[in-house]
Sequence to fold (334 residues):
Amino acid sequence: MFSTFTGLEKDTVPFVKAGLWAVSLCLAVGIFLFIKAGYFTALPAGTPTGEGQQPNGGHTYWRPPPLDEIPKGEEGDLVRYGRELILHTSVYLGPNGKVKPISNGMNCKNCHLDGGTKTFGLNYAAVAATYPQWRERSGTLVDVPERINECIERSLNGTRLQEGDKELKAMAAYLMWIGKEVPKGTIPVGTGMKKIAFLKRPADPNLGKVAFDKYCIECHGAKSEGLMAPNGQEWMYPPIFGDHSYNMGAGLYRLGKFASFVKYNMPLGTSFDAPVLSDEEAWDVAAYVNSMPRPAKDISNDWPDISKKPVDHPFGPFADGWSEYRHKYGPFIK
Fold:
């Protein structure tokens, strides 16, 4: 399930000629890595970045570079604008967006917590190091701008930005800057979401409604109406079902992803090392939320190789004999 952790590889000269030099270099590198804790503790490339990396004991979690390291000048201005777009997407691209009205009113930060920097909060740590990458969902090689557009179309139920748009360039620049310290081909510990354990029973929407009323309505509302920010341009707490939420093609429409996100990030302020909901509550809340109405999405071209479909992808055809109901609600263990 989890890959072996890798270290920093260096070419060395023959030990006989430079043994002492190599030892000194290793010590220096070790001290440097200790100071830059988390940036270079990584899993091998090829490990799915969206499934969450869960470290063995003694390993350090990735931390984002400080904002004061954003350079001055045009390059830095683009990064700063990209961060602003991640934090306040709807102000610029929402229904009344000042740039263009192409999305549903949610902000990227509603899912990519703390502007894409939170540990196991769908952060952007691995973006610079792992893109372009092959995506089984589309069956294509995807670069960073394309991945951003996928999120806009699915999670924001919106319309794609164009290749030359400043906003697309800015968001890509911010995502690349966030992961600037991560060596190419590695995945920092704490990327994506921490995986929740599978249940031995199907997730239950009725039990999920009970948990939703207990934990979620204070922010999201009893009918998932959300809470609008004082500026009237974006959600302070977004609707998580209904017309203004993510559509059926979004990653969070998969129960495993939603349950993992809720377990280790919700209610807002929860951290992965001190979860509030039990595993059962997280799965059941996911079942309830994703059983409610939301925008549709044409996904007929998704997963061209059906053998690569995740077990919790709820739309056929499937490579196994399970029903669509089981692929949506589980149990996901045989």
The beta strands are 42-44, 133-135, 140-142, 186-188, 227-228, 235-237. Residues 205-329 form a domain with the Cytochrome Bc1 Complex; Chain D, domain 2 fold (CATH 1.10.760.10).
